[in-house]
Known about the structure:
single chain; 2 helices; elongated
Amino acid sequence: MKPQMVKKLLMSQIKTIADNAKSFCIDSERNFSRKRKLSMEKVITGIIGMG
Length: 51
C-alpha cells in the first residue's frame, strides 16, 4: 500500500471514531460533548503524531 493510501485510511478511521465519540469515552455524557478548541479528531491525530 502506498503511504498516501495508508494516511487516507487512517484519517477516515479517526473520523469514524470521532463521529461516534460516545462509544469510546468513559463518561459519554461529558467527554467531548461541548464544542472545544481541540476536537476528538485532533486529539487522536496529535497523540498518534507524538508516538
